[in-house]
Design brief:
Blueprint: E1 3-8, H1 18-35, E2 39-42, H2 56-66, E3 71-78, H3 84-97, E4 102-107, H4 114-119, H5 130-140, E5 162-166, H6 169-178, E6 182-184, H7 193-203, E7 215-223, H8 227-246, H9 265-274, E8 278-281, H10 283-297, E9 301-305, H11 311-325
Helix pairs in contact: 1-2, 1-11, 3-5, 6-7, 8-9
C-alpha cells in the first residue's frame, strides 16, 4: 500500500452546524495523526451549506494547531479567487507557525457557482492566467535577492511545497512542465485520469523541488466491519452527488436503506460515474481493489475522502484504512 492522506471538505451533516463540522475535523485530524496518515488537506468551497471549508487558510491553521506532526494543507486553494501575494502571505504565515508541515495545493476552478464567483469579485478571465499566477506565487517564496519591490512577509525564502491540482490532461501538462507534484481529483472526476497521468509523466521536467514525477490520486474509501454497513454509509455521499446533479445542494444527508428509491435510472448512472473511483466495503474486500487501482495508475500516494454523516463511522472508516495501509510497503512521500 502506498502513502495515505486525507481530503476533507469539512462536511456539515443535516442537523449540524459549521461549528460542529469544524470540531469534527479537528478530532479526525488528531486521530489521523495517531494512525500514521501523511497529510490532512482541506478543500476550498464557497456558498455550500454542506461544507465548512470556505476560509481554507484559517482551517489549515485550525487543524495544524490541533495536531503536532501530520502535514496540513489546502487541497486546494483556487488561485484565481485570490491574489497570489495574499496566498503567499497566508501560507508563509502558516509555514512560520508550523514549520515543515504546510502544503499548498493549487487549482483553477472557482470552487462554487457563477453567482458566488461574482460575489467574490472573481474575474473569469483569470483562470487563463493560472500558469503565470502559479509562477508569480512561486516567486514570492524565493529567497530575498534585494531586487524585489514587492515581497511576501512572511513568505519570502520559505519552503512551502506547491502542488498542481486538476482533473484534466492540461493540468497534468502544467504540473509536468513546472516540475511540481500532481494531485488528480479522481474521487469525483474520473474522466481523463489515465490520459492526465500519462501527460504529466511524459511532460515532466525535473525541478529544484522534485527530481521525478509524483502523483497523488483522490479516491473515496468507505470501510466498515460489514459490507452492508459500508454500503449504507456510502448512501450519504451518493445523495450528496444526487443533489448536485439535481442542482439542489444542501447539508450532508443521513444514510438510507434503499438508495434506489431516491433516484431515477439516469441519475443513478450520472452519480455512479462521478463516484467511479469509490471503494466501499470491508478491509478484506476493499484491499485488493485498492491494490489493483494503485497498480493500474502507479500512484505514489492516495488522498482519501470519506464524507460520512456519522462522526464515529467516519473515524472508524479511516481507522480501518490506516490498518490496511500499514499491512503493506509505504512509498517515499514528497514533502
Amino acid at each position: 500500500m502506498v502513502q495515505l492522506s486525507i481530503l476533507d471538505i469539512i462536511p456539515v451533516p443535516e442537523g449540524s452546524t459549521p461549528g460542529d463540522a469544524l470540531r469534527r475535523a479537528a478530532n479526525l485530524a488528531v486521530a489521523a495523526e495517531g494512525w500514521g496518515y501523511n497529510r490532512y488537506w482541506i478543500a476550498e468551497h464557497h456558498n455550500m451549506v454542506g461544507a465548512a471549508g470556505a476560509a481554507t487558510a484559517v482551517n489549515v491553521c485550525h487543524i495544524a494547531g490541533a495536531t503536532r506532526r501530520i502535514r496540513v494543507g489546502a487541497g486546494g486553494i483556487m488561485l484565481p479567487n485570490h491574489p497570489p501575494l495574499i496566498v503567499a502571505e497566508q501560507f508563509g504565515t502558516l509555514e512560520s507557525l508550523y514549520p515543515g508541515r504546510i502544503d499548498l495545493g493549487l487549482g483553477r476552478a472557482p470552487g462554487t457557482d457563477h453567482m458566488t464567483a461574482r460575489a467574490m469579485r472573481r474575474n473569469t478571465g483569470r483562470a487563463q492566467e493560472f500558469p503565470f499566477e502559479v509562477q508569480e506565487l512561486q516567486g514570492y517564496f524565493q529567497p530575498d535577492d534585494g531586487a524585489a519591490r514587492v515581497r511576501a512577509i512572511p513568505g519570502t525564502g520559505l519552503r512551502v511545497p506547491l502542488w498542481i491540482l486538476g482533473s484534466s490532461p492540461s493540468s497534468g501538462a502544467l504540473a509536468g512542465a513546472m516540475g511540481l507534484p500532481y494531485a488528480f481529483a479522481s474521487h469525483f472526476a474520473p474522466d481523463g485520469l489515465m490520459e492526465g497521468l500519462a501527460t504529466y509523466r511524459s511532460s515532466f521536467a525535473p525541478s529544484e523541488v522534485l527530481s521525478a514525477p509524483y502523483v497523488m490520486l483522490g479516491v473515496n474509501v468507505i470501510l466498515a466491519d460489514t459490507q452492508r454497513e459500508a454500503e449504507r454509509m456510502f448512501t450519504s455521499i451518493q445523495q450528496r452527488y444526487l443533489n448536485i446533479v439535481r442542482g439542489t445542494p444542501g447539508k450532508l444527508p443521513a444514510p438510507v436503506d434503499d438508495i434506489n428509491s431516491l433516484w431515477t435510472a439516469s441519475e443513478a448512472r450520472q452519480v455512479s460515474h462521478m463516484l467511479h473511483y469509490s471503494f466501499v466495503g470491508t478491509v478484506e474486500s476493499v484491499g485488493p481493489q485498492l491494490s489493483r487501482f494503485i497498480d493500474q495508475t502507479a500512484a505514489d500516494e492516495l488522498i482519501v475522502s470519506a464524507t460520512l454523516y456519522d462522526a464515529a463511522a467516519r473515524l472508524r472508516s479511516y481507522e480501518l484504512l490506516a490498518k490496511l495501509g500499514q499491512a503493506g510497503p509505504v512509498s517515499q512521500a514528497y514533502a
